[in-house]
From TrEMBL:
Residues 89-379 form the Peptidase A1 domain. PANTHER family: OS07G0603500 PROTEIN-RELATED, OS08G0469000 PROTEIN. One of its GO terms (cellular component) is extracellular region. The keyword Flavoprotein does not apply. It comes from the Eukaryota. The active site is at 107, 326. This is Peptidase A1 domain-containing protein. Belongs to the peptidase A1 family. Keywords: Aspartyl protease, Glycoprotein, Hydrolase, Protease, Signal. GO terms for molecular function: aspartic-type endopeptidase activity. Residues 1-17 form the signal peptide.
Length: 379
């Protein structure tokens, strides 16, 4: 597999708006996305170093997914459901009746919606109490024969109840039962003058993993919400639907936003420069159909189109390669040749001597706040 190298451009005010799958929608809400490091008082240098380290782990996990994808043997096939954990953004939601508030990692790189449930046999630390199915009036176990059970990558059956195991690429995992519940979204978004935006949206019959055996890091949250393209993701379950998110720099106090359904409307979205947004279709990699692949053709700096063979961005026949957009990777990784082309051009046009910034773990530092990284990982 080609090596990927990270590219971090922080001087550019980044507002990325990601519209997904446009269709009629019956559910609409908007939420604040909280950066995982927002609660703690890290310095700018610590924030960068932590983001670089998380992205490095995330890319390694995503590459483990890609490497595991084209397999035929069933044990290895179970590993195909490796996803990448380590999120960057958290959302607030509530589960059950009466609703129990919790915070979860928002993840476009996986599908399953899950939280840790009592009785917990093995659980990661979380800031809220475990969800107690017996105390919710709307909790329903899913039978093994149900359509939703069949959509799990690795379904199993125990006493006629659908049980799941879900692995992430860094050996985080969750296992438990698949159940339906009523989820509540958007209660925390009460800040708009339009009254419809202020009310919480209750969505019945969302299928989720009630995890009794869980391992890994939840970044001070209590579960994950998969926004991938697979059938069990929140996006697919609420569909036909769509979502968009606008990410502010995590060095900025302006919160990031997530819009769902009717509120994910590109008509009311402008770029920071005031020009209308442009769009490009997602492409499907058959080896990893739940990921959001983009068809990248080239990179320009200013008006200079860099000399990069477009094939370095292509999805290969074996499912490797390609370019994904991912909520959990805060720095952009490029294939080695593409990275060198961008780095060399930047170094040549910025009239400052490049410095090797080993403190953060990136190889080229041009200005305060503008970093270029190389070779954080080899594969
Ligand atoms: C749950 O979250 C909502 C929205 O943030 C808040 O209004 C409500 O008071 C919370 N409920 C509890 C029990 O903390
Ligand atoms: C607010 O919601 C009501 C009921 O769902 C709907 O009739 C109305 O058109 C909505 N208003 C706006 C501004 O979206
Ligand atoms: C949830 O699904 C069950 C089974 O299909 C159905 O009986 C029930 O009415 C649904 N609940 C809601 C609130 O739609
Ligand atoms: C769970 O929710 C799905 C989707 O709404 C529905 O088709 C199914 O019948 C529900 N099952 C149960 C047991 O509520
Ligand atoms: C964890 O989250 C809780 C609120 O959910 C917050 O009060 C606490 O400060 C957070 N802890 C850390 C270490 O971020
Ligand atoms: C966006 O605006 C165009 C033209 O005004 C309209 O045809 C289209 O239906 C709008 N789309 C949405 C999702 O509102
Ligand atoms: C978006 O930009 C266009 C052109 O500058 C402007 O007419 C429009 O009002 C802007 N819309 C929003 C929602 O800011
Ligand atoms: C930057 O420093 C690291 C650690 O000393 C070294 O491995 C790397 O090759 C250096 N990169 C450049 C471009 O000099």
């Amino acid at each position: 597999m080609a090596s990927l190298v990270p590219l971090l451009l922080l001087l550019v005010p980044i507002i990325s708006c990601l519209p997904v799958a446009s269709c009629k929608s019956h559910v609409g809400f908007k939420l604040t996305l909280t950066h995982v490091d927002a609660g703690a008082s890290y310095t700018k240098l610590q924030l960068l170093t932590r983001a670089v380290a998380r992205s490095k782990a995330r890319v390694a996990a995503l590459q483990a997914v890609a490497a595991a994808a084209p397999v035929t043997d069933p044990i290895a096939a179970a590993r195909v459901l490796v996803r990448a954990s380590h999120g960057e953004y958290l959302i607030d939601l509530a589960i059950g009746t009466p609703p129990l508030n919790y915070t979860a990692i928002m993840d476009t790189g996986s599908d399953l919606v899950w939280t840790q449930c009592a009785p917990c046999l093995l659980c990661a630390d979380q800031p809220t109490p475990y969800f107690q199915p017996a105390q919710s009036a709307t909790y329903r176990l899913l039978p093994c024969r149900s359509a939703r059970c069949g959509q799990l990558p690795y379904p199993a059956c125990f006493q006629k109840v659908c049980v799941y195991q879900y692995y992430y690429g860094d050996y985080a995992s969750t296992a438990g039962v698949l159940a339906n519940e009523t989820f509540t979204f958007g209660a925390a978004a009460a800040e708009s003058s339009s009254s419809n935006l202020t009310s919480a949206v209750r969505v019945p019959n969302v299928s989720f993993g009630c995890g009794n055996i869980n391992a890994g890091e939840l970044a001070n949250s209590s579960g994950m919400v998969g926004f991938g393209r697979g059938p069990l993701s929140l996006v697919s379950q609420l569909g036909p639907s769509r979502f968009s998110y606008c990410l502010t720099s995590y060095l900025s106090p302006t919160p990031s936003r997530l819009y769902f359904g009717a509120f994910a409307n590109l008509n009311s979205t402008n770029t920071s420069s005031g020009s209308p947004v442009q769009s490009t279709p997602f492409v499907v990699n058959p080896a990893l159909p739940n990921m959001y692949y983009l068809s990248l053709k080239g990179i320009s700096l200013g008006t200079t189109r860099l000399q990069i063979d477009p094939l370095v961005f292509a999805i290969n026949d074996d499912g490797t390669g390609g370019v994904i957009i991912d909520s959990g990777t805060s720095i952009t990784y490029l294939q080695q040749d593409a990275y060198e082309a961008v780095r060399n051009e930047l170094v040549s046009i910025v009239p400052l001597p490049p410095k090797n910034d080993t403190e953060i773990g990136l190889d080229t530092c041009l200005l305060d706040g503008l970093y270029l990284g190389v070779r954080l990982m080899a594969c």
